Amino acid sequence: MTTRKAIFVTGGASGIGRAIALYFAERDWFVGVGDVDEAGMRETLGLMKHGFSYQHTFDVRDREAWDRALDGFATAAGSRIDVLANNAGIPLGGALEENSVTEIERCLDINLKGVLFGAQAVYPWLKKTAPGSCLLNTASAAGIYGTPGASVYSATKFGVRAITESLDGEWADDGIKVRSIMPSFIDTPLLDHNPNAKSNEDIRTRVTDAGLEITPVEEVAKAAWDAVHGDKLHTTVGKTAKSLAFGARWLPGKLRKQTRASARPLGK
Question: Which range marks the domain in which residue 70 is found?
């Protein structure tokens, strides 16, 4: 087995996934990226300054495809996987009554089932490289306190948080770390998408109009590195995420009032 550590990042074609991939590559890790966007993955790998990289086109909703992706990556990386960054995800906003069945099911399948499938598929690989191997899940500030206008998305990210906490206990005796990062609004291409099919206003505009900060994606990449190498179960990223975490723990009544007073669902 090679001594160079290896990380596989889903959603690696852009945004947070790309930033994590580049951050670990700069620190001499063997980096693999998985996504449905083949061109985007090629661009991510093209930004790396060394040749220790791999890409695999697959859909995280396909359980069997996970096995093929991880087997291929491990073979390329010298029969090891030290970290899986379970990062692939999509946004969905707007009032619940505006969300179509198709949108709801797609968000649940990618953001929640995709994370479960990834964890299940990578377990034997992480057990092999333990102690010190890590499952890193991308949750969200929306997994700290339910976000008005994003009930489905919030549900998936609360789920990712629960998966992280459950597996942290389940895999402890195996020496596998399980961690999550909880970013707020991050400067990625996802902000330029409409929150749902019925909206004609992108998420970035709504965030800016609400006076909320947009955090540089590089901060998330550093948080991912720190989470993999640290002892903290959940790592919040950005002022909004940190404020929500503080309010949910220490001022739940005030946070509830503020949330209800400011609620204007994304996409309305």
Answer: 6-262
- Per the CB < 8 A criterion, the answer to whether 223 and 181 are in contact is yes
Stated as kind and residue range, the H or E segment containing 85 is strand 83-86
Answer yes or no: is 268 within a domain. Answer: no
Burial of 171 (0-12, 13-18, 19+ CB in 10 A): buried
Indicate whether 1 belongs to any domain. Answer: no
Task: Read off the tokens for 165.
Answer: 């906490």
Provide the residue-wise pLDDT of the chain in tens; the chain has 268 residues: 567 999 999 999 999 999 999 999 999 999 999 999 999 999 999 999 877 899 999 999 999 999 999 999 999 999 999 999 999 999 998 899 999 999 999 999 999 999 999 999 999 999 999 999 999 999 999 999 998 888 999 999 999 999 999 999 999 999 999 999 999 876 556 555 555 566 555 545 554 544 456 678 899 999 999 999 999 999 999 998 998 899 999 999 998 998 888 775 443 3
pTM of the predicted protein model:
0.89
Sorted by sequence, the CB contacts under 8 Å of residue 261 that are 6+ apart come out as none
> What CATH number is attached to the domain comprising 29?
3.40.50.720
Residues with a known catalytic role: 153
